[in-house]
User: What shape does this take?
Amino acid sequence: MSTRTLPPTLTPDAAAALALRVRSGELRAAARLMRLLDDRVPGAEAALKALHPLTGHARVVGITGNPGSGKSTLTDQLIAHYRRGVTPPETIGVVAVDPSSPYSGGAILGDRIRMMDHAADPGVFIRSLATRGQLGGLSRSTDDVIQVLDAMGKDRILVETVGVGQDEIDIVKTAETAIVVLVPGLGDDVQAIKAGILEIADIFVVNKADRDGALRTVSDLKQMQSLGQKPRTWEPPILSTVATRGEGIAAVAEAIEAHRQHLASDPERLARRQRERAAHRFRTILMDRVAQRLGVLLAEDARLETLCDRLVHRELDPYTAADELLARFAG
Amino acid sequence: MSTRTLPPTLTPDAAAALALRVRSGELRAAARLMRLLDDRVPGAEAALKALHPLTGHARVVGITGNPGSGKSTLTDQLIAHYRRGVTPPETIGVVAVDPSSPYSGGAILGDRIRMMDHAADPGVFIRSLATRGQLGGLSRSTDDVIQVLDAMGKDRILVETVGVGQDEIDIVKTAETAIVVLVPGLGDDVQAIKAGILEIADIFVVNKADRDGALRTVSDLKQMQSLGQKPRTWEPPILSTVATRGEGIAAVAEAIEAHRQHLASDPERLARRQRERAAHRFRTILMDRVAQRLGVLLAEDARLETLCDRLVHRELDPYTAADELLARFAG
Assistant: This one.
């Protein structure tokens, strides 16, 4: 008897059973579904469809910042705050998006270390994601994990992203509350990032505030805000923290709550944010599907290698080639 | 007479004329074409199609690194090297990709400052790009600018990207030579990035090498290389620079040349790299077209707002919604 490996797939029955186990809060079932979704295993999506009516209740907080800004530490401190600093404690899901790791699982080690921190706490679920090879794949996988955590009944989901790529900006932008973490004095590049990221931040955190230049960073931010285009109903607060010592964390949690109150104070405002989030998720799924179908089409196409040779030798231009393929795709 | 603004578009004749002016090296024509392409002005692509047979001669060098790593300074020093340190001087094109700036043109100020540095030198053309709102839009725009610079006859094109998002990794990965710039001692996050980026680097540069921890960073990199999976025909050199003082720049240029020689020493190896680049460009154009068509479809769809409301209220799940739209798209 051979022991051949079957291509992984999830039958409709298995998907339904898995969804049931996830909604009852089974950690291993949730972890398995996330893995299947991340691997784009056929049939896994059916479980998400089944869970969809259960979602939309968790408060999603996005946290972004440069490598070295200490946002992982800030996230860990926020977990501790919501677990031990509030009554009743909130259940927490964390999605740590690490786009720095396209091939090797650079996130895995850090993930394990952090999992151990909260290993004894069933109220905390942490999942790390590395970049998918595919355009937009990261947004899709992140959204999927958020959905699973939401369906599990987590009160709050913290989405932590490294870097400032478009994918990560989209991920944070569509959270209910977006936190941008900065550190003092990283030079001119950071100034540019601040300028670009002004519009997506609901809250600014200047971490490592015990360092030289912290006041300068705060005043730079204030000045940029004062140069802002239009009057806003919500002026993003600028908070200082020393996350490694837990300083300023309660104030960050208060600002998150204040921002939530601000959204909720105007039903139309909250609805708009929810629609934006739904539209983003819809677009992400749509593009992911298209990318997959085109990928299949390209892989099936025996002519792809020939095509590339013709492109290299300038016998064909890529615009015409793309139009030809699309004509086949869109009939 | 009214002075209404016509929607910008480029007629076939105008595109052909513009292409002619670009191939004769006219700077203003090149700048105009880049702007039209970046704005996705209908008809602009025809100019690129016309220029396509002229491309494929420039040597494309990708330079990436975290914000604050000093890669802009390194790029500037490389420009100076190729303009004044080699005989005959090379003509240089630069694409500075700044994904930190999704809304405001954060890149523009830096661009102007750098343009002034080289304003008196017609042999240097610098173009900055900010992130496009659309998935993969950045890759597409960067490729377009590279094509225009190539068609202008630039000997060498330096592509500088901030950050480590998937788009930027793809951009650098498909260059002929990929340089990854690191700085000493930015903490654990950077270690993760190093791990993820190991495979795309043809050359490592440890910049700000006069700082504490530089030797440590070099030895960390060496250790990671020694842990590498398979024996490689090209072992990425690890070079130390102090770009602000021009130290180590000549060695970087030598390593770029050595890498080129390595590629050229095996025709199949060079061909493979060129095919990878062509395939990446083809995929990028394909996905960009699909995103645009879907965007049009979504914008035309009066039901989009209703759709989002139904998604928010969980009356419909986004997978089913995406399948329905795709069925209409792909007929």
Summary: Confidence is low (pLDDT under 50) at residues 100-113, 188-192 of chain A. The two ends of chain A are 45 Å apart (CA to CA). Chain A touches chain B through 90 residues (CB under 8 Å). Residues 74 and 243 of chain A are 5 Å apart (CA to CA).
